[in-house]
Each structure stands twice: as C-alpha cells, then as structure tokens.
Amino acid sequence: MSGNDQVPVIDCLQYCNYSEEIFRDLRIGGVNAIHTTISYHEDFRETVENIVRWNRWFETYPDLIFAGRTAGDVRRAQSEGRTAVFFGLQNCSSMEDDIGLVQVLHELGVRFMQLSYNNQSLLATGCYEANDPGITRMGREVIAEMNRVGMVIDMSHSATRSTLEAIELSKRPIAVTHANLHEWHPVPRNKPVDVMKALAETGGMLGFSLYPHHLRDGSACSLESFCSMVARAAEIMGVKNIGIGSDLCQDQPDEVVQWMRRGKWTKEAPTEGVAFPSQPDWFGSNRDFRNVADGLKKAGFSKNDTDDVMGGNWLRFFEHSFSSIGSDSPASFAAPRIAAQGTK
Q1: Domain that holds residue 66
Q2: Angle at 14 between CA 341 and CA 29, to 5 degrees
Q3: Mean per-residue pLDDT for 72-83?
Q4: Which residue, 59, 123, 134, is CA-closest to 89?
Q5: Per-residue b or e along 152-161, where b marks 16 or more CB atoms closer than 10 Å to that residue's CB
Q6: Residue 114 forms beta bridges with which residues?
Q7: Is residue 115 situated within a structural domain?
C-alpha cells in the first residue's frame, strides 16, 4: 500500500533478525511503519551499539527503510514507498538508574519503553513475578519524564497492578503494544478485561500479538479464531483503541529465546530445548499482513474499521505521543481520554 490517500499499515512491535530480505518483505507486505525492539536487557552503551547497527542499515538500504521520529514520518514512508522504523525498548535497563537518560534515549530516536520485562525492575513489576507491589517511587518519576519528552509507556510484559497504576499515573495515554485477551488464551502475558477497559477509557492502545505463545492453540491458531478475538476486544475497548503489534521474530536463531528469557539476571543453565515456535501458516512473515486484513473483513469489520486496526489507530496515537510537552507541535499534548465505543 502506498499513497497518502490510504490508511497506513503499522506493526507496533517486531524483533526480527533484520536483513535486506526482510526489509524487502516489509515493502512487499505494504508495511509503512514498524516499532522495532532495540533492547531487551542491554545497558545504555549496548543499546547505543544497536542504534549504530540500525544507522548502518539506514545508510545501506535507503530505498527501503529510514529512521522514524514523528507521526509525519509514517505518511512520508507511504509517499516514498519505504518503511519508517521507530525504536523501542522492551525493558528499562537501557536507562540504567539514571532518569536523565530518558531524554537522551528519546533524542537518539527511542519512542517506546516498557517499564518492566517479565521480572521486577526499578520501575514496575513484570507479569511472571509472584507479587506485584505496583509502580515504584522511581517509576513514578520516570513516567512523568517519559510524558514530558514524548516517549510512550509500554506495559506489555508488566503485571496487572503495575499496568493499571501506570495508566492512572500517566498524563498521556499508554500502550500495550503486543498482547492478547487473557480470557481468550489465559497466559500471564495476555491482558485481563479490567486492563483493557482502563486503556480504552484513557485513550490508550492494545496491539494484538501474533506470537504463537500468545495465541489460542499456538502455532495451529486459525485466522478465524484470532479475528474473533479481535472482534471481542473491539466490543470491550472500542474499535479506535486497538491495532497490531505482531511480536514477529522472523529469522531469529533459537538462542535468542534464551537471551529474551534469561538476560543477565540468572546464573542458571539455559533451558534445554527452548526454541522459537512456528508461526501460524497465515502469518509467517512481513509479507502476510494482507491476510490479517482479509480475516478482519470476513469477521465482520467494515473497511474503515479494518483500516483503523491495521494502522490508522496507531497513526493517531503516534500523533499525540512522540513530541515533547511544550514543543511547537500540536501533537505535544495528551490525546483526549475517551470512553470506549462500539465495534461497528
């Protein structure tokens, strides 16, 4: 898809093993913008090294990709037939214990940061901890600083109390960029109805994951089942508060799963046999976003609602999220906090 008269396709979470082939897949799939993970457990310096790697890709493949900084870059990508790449952090390790690094990371292009990744962090609690005491003292300060500079608070891997408190504390709408409905597939990473309602009531966004561990029936999940779950979420949240955050890990080697789960926090031996699950046959790569759109239409979504889920809603969210408060851009102010609306 290209051209500013069309609604863009936006995937609000990926962690692929990027290459020229994948960058070309993005173009074949009509993906106008992606939010890509540049850090899981890396410290600040290691994160900068990952940004350097991306800068080399931007230099090597300028006809395919470029660094996204503002919502306007999504429209630019459409008009130029390229993909805008927005950076995100799946943990707060990159800012270490220094709140001043939030602004520095934003200036380096980071537009999303999770407050925790599965475990307890300096800011919030991850979804695999036994107890969730909520947002920490430092977490409150960091939320305010992220609001100020224009960095989106992402609670995809966080526990329920921490997520609800982040929604309440943030002056801007927050996001859960990649998760599904807990009632559809009850794993710790998927979100309960109270979180979904709180997101919608404050103008936040939920991005639906296509990672098999988050799907009912895993790799065998059908497109029909996935789209029925999206329709249920639209009933709960309103169709304007949902999008896609595929969590696609295309071409990643299996040892990366160990890195995701183990990071630097444990000395236990790697878990034997851990590997990436196979993707559903209807979504194996960046070429397959049209399958999702077709499935939504078959599930009863109108063309306009399908376009919104595939990217229009994320674009509006970006417009209100990426600029600093006090800048000249009208996007520097929080999006209106709205009540959920019906699906169709």
Answers
A1: 10-332
A2: 80
A3: 97
A4: 123
A5: bbbbbbbbbb
A6: 154
A7: yes
